[in-house]
Hints:
Blueprint: H1 27-38, H2 53-64, H3 76-91, H4 109-117, E1 131-132, E2 152-155, E3 166-170, E4 192-194, E5 216-218, E6 225-226, E7 240-242, E8 247-251, E9 264-266, E10 271-274, E11 288-290, E12 295-296, H5 302-309, E13 315-318, E14 329-330
Parallel strand pairs: 3-4, 4-5, 5-7, 6-8, 7-9, 8-10, 9-11, 10-12, 11-13, 13-14
Antiparallel strand pairs: 1-2, 2-3
Amino acid sequence: PTLSPSHRPSDLPSESPSFPYACGILPCDRAADLKEFYSTISDPVLFDNPGSPQSLALDWIINHDLMTVCPNDPNTCHTIQRYVLAVFYFSTQGYNWTNCTAPKDYDCEEEIAQANANCDRTSTRYYSSNRIGTLDTNAWLTPAHECEWGGVACHGDNSPEMSHCLDQIGFEANDLGGIIPDEVASLENMRYLFLEQGNIFGTIPSAIGSLLNLKVLDLDHNNLRGTIPEEIYNLSQLLQLDLNSNELTGYLSTQVGNLYNLNSLQLDINQLEGTIPEEVGQLDQLEEGNFSFNNFTGGVESEICDLRSEGSLEKLQVDCIISCDCCTSCS
Length: 331
């Protein structure tokens, strides 16, 4: 008998199925592209250390972040700051924070909800009425936009070119530890950095000196050591510099006169030495200056005293061994 011919399907799919991967590229390509991009922000050698904050942040971005950052995302603020905030989280020992710690399981809805319930940090509101995330209290490393994480605020739509770009990190008394990572220098639109009353150690990163839009740098009541980086004096927009109650050493640079918008300078309770430079007298917007409980010597120059008689300086405090005819008090 003659065998019946085999029947082959005559109808083939007319269109290829849609690409099933996030960002429209293979996972391995996405991982490679993100690693290459973030190598422009962090030293790529750090990615080879599985326990480094940079390696942990990269792993979270690539493998666990449900928001799925894409290497070809035109919103570079989002791509950069989500990674930098993750580095900041791991670098300051976010798992030990009092508030807003990440969920134990990044992929578990119940764990995410619990982490969000344990976060109540809002951002300081009086700086701007049109910012994003000011009242949001999502835990860090959750699927929400990073502008909506607790203690974070971003620029609003009144600045379209900077909308959703990070404006503030604010954590007071939240048990931050570890060190401040150099990567914060990539948050170039940030104006407010409040990290006071924690357990941060190490030195003040010189990279902070590249944050030229910074208005407030508040690092008081931590365990910071070393000198005040010269780069800090590049921050000509700075209104408030609070470094008191740390373990800072060295001299107060004559470059302090470059901070001509400064209205509050708090350096008390450190181990600074030398003389208080006369260039402090160039800070004609200064309202408060506290240099007490240090190892300063000499006297307060007349240029500084002129701020009391002719400027806006209302409070000037030094150690009692310092000769000063215009100080409001000594310690």
